[in-house]
């Protein structure tokens, strides 16, 4: 027998307010911890400058240069003698590879077709973290890097070959040293390179002491 009353519906139980607040508090704490893990190391002052060496073979003399619009402290390296294509590119100091891949697009300049189309950006490139918030970058490599992300490399270890991938007019190595967030003048074997501003085109010559142990 029905009474004409609509059937009762079970009301959804709401979680206790205390439990909700606890979950929200734990989530907020997790976010704070995650942000701290990322941000705090970046706020620490950089450590002492590593004893960087030229990223080329021991005993070789290379021309270091820049030009207007190249950006302050950027260095282009060309060998004084011999062909640039395929020359070994070495780690300036020990560290951990953070990037090993393609920056921009490769283009089509090769030893067989040196006047091929330019690409964009740095082409094949490598970034190395040397600790203490010091970093080096190596651009326009000929082929895929010889190292991988996360790999530990020693000073003088080959990481690639000189090429002309990316936005490059001729085979050379574009090289940078960075301290924290900022690009700085490159130093080699304890001495400043002399490449500072890009107000005009100029070059210097330096001989590599990147001779390993």
TrEMBL record:
Q: Where are the transmembrane segments?
A: 21-43
Which keywords fit this entry according to its UniProt record? Membrane, Transmembrane, Transmembrane helix
Q: Which InterPro entries match?
A: Cell_wall_metabolism_enzyme (IPR050570), Dup_hybrid_motif (IPR011055), M23ase_b-sheet_dom (IPR016047)
Keyword Repressor assigned to the entry: answer is no
Q: Domain M23ase beta-sheet core, which positions?
A: 86-184
Question: Sorted alphabetically, which Pfam families does this protein's record hold?
Answer: Peptidase_M23
**Superkingdom of source:** Bacteria
Its recorded name reads M23 family metallopeptidase
**Could you read off the lineage of the organism from its UniProt record?**
Bacteria, Bacillati, Actinomycetota, Actinomycetes, Micromonosporales
């Amino acid at each position: 027998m029905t009474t004409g009353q609509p059937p009762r519906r079970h009301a959804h139980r709401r979680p206790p307010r205390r439990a909700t607040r606890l979950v929200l508090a734990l989530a907020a704490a997790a976010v704070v911890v995650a942000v701290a893990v990322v941000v705090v190391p970046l706020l620490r002052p950089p450590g002492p400058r590593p004893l960087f060496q030229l990223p080329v073979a021991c005993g070789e003399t290379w021309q270091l240069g820049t030009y207007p619009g190249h950006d302050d402290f950027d260095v282009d390296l060309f060998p004084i003698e011999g062909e640039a294509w395929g020359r070994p590119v070495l780690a300036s100091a020990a560290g951990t590879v953070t990037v090993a891949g393609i920056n921009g697009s490769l283009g089509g300049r090769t030893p067989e077709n040196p006047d091929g189309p330019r690409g964009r950006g740095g082409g094949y490139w490598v970034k190395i973290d040397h600790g203490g918030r010091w970093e080096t970058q190596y651009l326009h490599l000929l082929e895929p890097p010889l190292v991988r992300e996360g790999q530990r490399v020693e000073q003088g270890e080959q990481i690639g070959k000189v090429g002309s991938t990316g936005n490059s007019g001729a085979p050379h190595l574009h090289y940078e040293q960075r301290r924290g967030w900022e690009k700085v003048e490159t130093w080699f074997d304890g001495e400043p390179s002399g490449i500072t501003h890009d107000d005009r085109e100029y070059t210097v010559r330096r001989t590599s002491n990147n001779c390993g142990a």
